[in-house]
Amino acid sequence: MNPYLLLLCHLWLLSLTPLLLASVSTQGTSSLACWYDSRAAIFCDWTPGRDLADAPCQLEISSKLPFFARSLFSPEKYKEHCELLKAEHTTELRRCIKTFSKNSNSQSFTTADRLNMSVHCRLGENGSTPARLEDFSPLANIKLRPPGNLQLVNKAKNSYNLSWSLNISSHYLDGERQYQVRYRTTSQSWEKHPGQFCQLL
Ligand SMILES: *[C@@H]1O[C@H](CO)[C@@H](O)[C@H](O)[C@H]1NC(C)=O
Ligand SMILES: *[C@@H]1O[C@H](CO)[C@@H](O)[C@H](O)[C@H]1NC(C)=O
Ligand SMILES: *[C@@H]1O[C@H](CO)[C@@H](O)[C@H](O)[C@H]1NC(C)=O
Ligand SMILES: *[C@@H]1O[C@H](CO)[C@@H](O)[C@H](O)[C@H]1NC(C)=O
InterPro entries, from UniProt (predicted)? Predict the structure, then answer.
């Protein structure tokens, strides 16, 4: 193979619908930030103060509309909880991922959903609510999962077929997804060469 062939590719997925552009930044001013993967999962990052880096804390997610029933016979639920993991050493973030369905590609939220999120911690005998996020609209705060199964196949001299798959993504985004491919030759480094970009629709 020619050493200048493009062997390394990174792929970004941008969700740039007009609807979503209005709130690319996350809602709320607290240190709690949440995103929706557009299907069944919401994930949140919280920056705790030093005192709460290791405290047992959980995120409470409440909704006016009932959450999708997990099974036909379970009662409707308006509150869900998600355990916040201990702070990561490098980022000092505490995260949690809540999936609202066993099938990670089922549509758990629509544009009508508004959620309140709050962090609850226990320190000794006392509880505290150090962060909250109100009126969170999942559909306005989408961060898609990265594409997978990236393959680069040499078709002819200097011609490649690049393919990938996207397992988890809402039908609401059909026709709206944009992809960006960043590539470099193997003899270059990302540090010295930011790479070249091309937009794919
Ligand atoms: C969210 O919080 C606001 C303000 O505290 C409250 O008015 C509203 O009822 C809450 N909604 C839910 C679903 O808990
Ligand atoms: C719990 O709260 C009480 C009353 O505010 C306070 O006196 C006590 O020191 C607190 N305990 C802890 C472990 O923070
Ligand atoms: C490129 O690869 C994909 C996945 O292997 C395949 O479906 C597609 O037909 C290929 N396209 C061309 C032009 O060969
Ligand atoms: C995506 O789906 C394919 C085929 O169903 C599966 O093999 C693969 O593990 C899935 N990838 C992810 C990231 O879930």
Answer: FN3_sf, Ig-like_fold, IL2RB_N1
In the structure, what pLDDT confidence band is assigned to residue 188 with cuts at 50, 70 and 90?
confident
C-alpha 134 – ligand 1 centre gap (Å): 7
Picking from 52, 56, 36, 53, the residue whose alpha carbon sits closest to that of residue 44 is: 36
CA gap 140, 31 in Å, rounded: 18
Q: How far apart are CA 38 and CA 55, in angstroms?
A: 30
Residues with CB under 6 A from ligand 3: 161, 163
- Position in ligand 4 atom list of the atom nearest CA 149: 11
The structure tokens 């240190």 sit at: 31
CATH 2.60.40.10 fits 24-140, yes or no: yes
pTM: 0.76
Which amino acid residue places its CA nearest to atom 7 of ligand 4?
Answer: 149
Report DSSP state, residue 140.
G
Backbone dihedral region of 158: left (phi > 0), alpha (psi from -120 to 50 degrees) or beta?
left
Domain ranges of the chain: 6-17+144-200, 24-140
* Closest residue by CA, ligand 1 atom 1: 116
Ligand 4 contacts CB of residue 167 (under 6 A): yes
Residue 60 and residue 78 in contact, taking contact as beta carbons nearer than 8 Å: no
pLDDT in tens, 15-65: 433 333 333 334 444 589 999 999 999 999 999 987 888 899 999 999 988
Ligand closest in space to the Cα of 146? 4
